[in-house]
Amino acid sequence: MPQPAQPPRALLPAPDAMQDELTADIRRTLSQARIEPVRLPDCGGLKLYLLGADFPQAALSPAEMQAALNEPAYWIFCWASGLALARRILREPALVRGRKVLDFGAGSGVVACAAALAGAREVVACDIDPSSLRATAANAALNGVSVRLAGDFFALTEDFDLVLAADVLYDRANHHFLTAFLERAPAVLVADSRVKNLQVPPYVLAAEEDAGTLPDLNEFDEFRHVRFYTAQR
Ligand SMILES: C[S@@+](CC[C@H](N)C(=O)[O-])C[C@H]1O[C@@H](n2cnc3c(N)ncnc32)[C@H](O)[C@@H]1O
Predict the structure, then answer these.
(1) Whose CA is nearest to atom 11 of ligand 1?
(2) Is the CB of 38 under 6 A from ligand 1?
(3) N or C: more exposed end of the chain, with fewer CB within 10 A?
(4) pLDDT for 150-174, tens place per residue?
């Protein structure tokens, strides 16, 4: 599949228009949803277009609930693992500085934007959801950084210095990507709050920290504990 190119900045809609376009996108499934720019805590000014914190979750109609389950719009949230990984990258920019980085399962593009802000040489954001790629392009523009977009990991033929992935292991079908990442890059850093004890050699638990999903989903405490797994080949 050809990789969708990010339009040059001058051709991107103005920030308000991007917010309106993302709101129109999510309203196809959640009629009362509103997207708004949110400044992330402890992320050095990184902002994202996310679901408004006042979204009335209790007011979902059965049809909307079904649509939301059939087509989950992950990009409207900054997941706890993405927030923790973005914070870590911005705290330790040497992790990515000067490197060509892939953010797998980009969602809102939070990790891709953090890597670009921290000085990565080149950043590619990969997600199978086209709405996620639109959100990532909007969030890259919102933060004044350049992020290239890709829909299918296996259509990428290039190599990377580092693969990053946050909150993608909730689906066991994604675990085989852990091996595929090491065929594309000599180093991988995965952040995850769903898998407590990842048993996939050569991945090892490297660090842990707490973070919460934005807007707050009132998740169980166990999903606020993020583990960083690393692997080298
Ligand atoms: C829970 S969200 C995490 C988003 C972001 N990394 C974060 O932490 O906020 C998982 C994302 O992975 C994407 N995803 C799942 N399977 C994928 C695959 N096989 N290839 C690319 N993206 C995938 C989903 O579309 C979704 O956007």
Answers:
(1) 105
(2) no
(3) N
(4) 999 999 999 999 999 999 999 999 9
